[in-house]
Amino acid sequence: MTGSDGHPLASTLAERGFRRLLGVRITSQFGDGMFQAALAGSVLFNPERQTTAVAVAVATAVLLLPYSLLGPFAGVLLDVWSRRRVLVAANLARIVLVAVAALLIAGASQGVPFMAVVLVAIGLNRLFLSAVSAATPHVVADARLVTANAVSGTLGSLATSAGIGCALLALQTAVSIGYHGYATVAALAPLGYVISAALAARRFGADDLGPDEVPRQRRAPWARLTGVVQDLGSGVRHLARRHDAALALAVQTGFRLLFGVLTLALLLLHRNYFPGDDDIEGSVTALAGVFVAGALGVIVGAALTPRLTRRIGGQLWITAALAAAAVVLAGFGLPFRADLLLVVVFVLNVAAQSIKIVTETFIQHECDDAYRGRVFSVSDTTFNLAYVLGMFAAAFALPDTGRSPVVLLVVAAAMLAVAAGYGVQRWRAAGTWDAVADASRP
Q1: I need a surface site. Which of 32, 141, 396, 404 has the fewest CB within 10 A?
Q2: Which residue from 184, 150, 153 is spatially nearest to 170, judged by alpha carbons?
Q3: Distance between CA 409 and CA 391 in Å, rounded?
Q4: Is 222 exposed, middle or buried (0-12, 13-18, 19+ CB in 10 A)?
């Protein structure tokens, strides 16, 4: 790693290892965006299928829950395996899996085999991102972690949005909206994985990204399984003793649950409420605006968070962002107009990106390297579980049109409650983040 005393962004980008890891992440997440667009289109925005709130929630649960329950075990492996090899292997495996998924979509085969292939592909994606997060402290100075997480998370999210945008453009101009069109989009996704794997293999040595200490003892399969459970427990206990990281993770989990409710509502509104006469093509076009608004929110959240955490601290900034999101949700969401909901999407993504950056930085700063893989996998698991639970709660509370003023107000009130609770905890444990914020000053 190289150091710099200049502007936080410039000095972070001056780290050659960070730039290389950023390239690995961006190219992979571009492929993810293409694949996600193909999946969402084939399941939700497909004129050959009917969509209900419960059907969307069930599909989401099938795809996310199995890996979410097994994710912490993968985190233990991140603390034992070379993270560079994980990045390469995850990309190579997804090349094959996504190609198979594209063939199944083309054949309108979306039963158990399709779900199994998609499940493994998504699981490998989450393992990949956990490995990137655990490896980041190896390529950037500790004092620059806030900025590094902001840059990495933002550009990664933008790469995903760019992949989705390219997929939507292709669907509007080059291929038809239907099984064959979505299969074509999915077949293009592995290009991103190929580039990402090549970058990881050529630009990092086997031990460059950690872990620093790897146990060498050989154990029988059953002993390894029980050892994983024990190691996972030690990772959770390690996190519990890191007050700021644990508290930030709790806030992220609560917000993610509410985000799941709003995601399903937004999808149903654009699928069944805003378009007239089952205009699927119009729905897909309208969603392009939603992705643009979300991408802008990610950019703004990433730009604001490093500066504001240095000035007012991460906890106060997250409290303010949550409160602002709750107010905007109630004020701009209740009319249930597509144009006003773009403002809601923008502000929610500012808050989401800010929470993500602060939480990741707390984990990276407070948790020892030997535990980071496990802690990030626990974070990923709670992230997904909360999202799925939020979608299920919404599925049984929302009509199939997605329009429910009561649900929207309940979510806004809950968001305010999370903000208030986090703010109270800030005053009880003031100053803990400030030490990190001061360290990240130029």
Answers
A1: 396
A2: 184
A3: 16
A4: exposed
> Residue 3 domain-assigned?
no
* Cα(64)–Cα(123) distance, integer angstroms: 8
| Residue 133, domain member (yes or no) | yes
Residue 319: CATH number of its domain? 1.20.1250.20
Q: In the structure encoding, which two tokens stand for residue 318, read together?
A: 């997250």
228 occurs within a structural domain: no
Full pLDDT tens readout for the chain, 442 residues: 444 455 677 888 888 999 999 999 999 999 999 998 888 777 766 655 556 677 777 777 766 676 666 666 666 677 778 899 999 999 999 999 999 999 998 888 877 888 888 888 888 887 898 899 889 999 998 888 878 888 898 899 889 989 988 988 888 787 777 788 889 999 999 999 999 999 999 999 988 998 876 655 555 445 555 666 676 677 778 888 887 888 889 999 999 999 999 998 998 888 778 875 455 565 666 777 888 898 899 889 988 998 898 888 888 899 999 999 999 999 999 999 999 999 999 999 999 999 999 988 888 888 888 778 778 877 877 888 898 889 889 988 998 888 999 999 999 999 999 999 988 876 766 544 444 443 333 3
Total number of domains in the chain: 1
Look at residue 130 and tell me if it is in a domain: yes
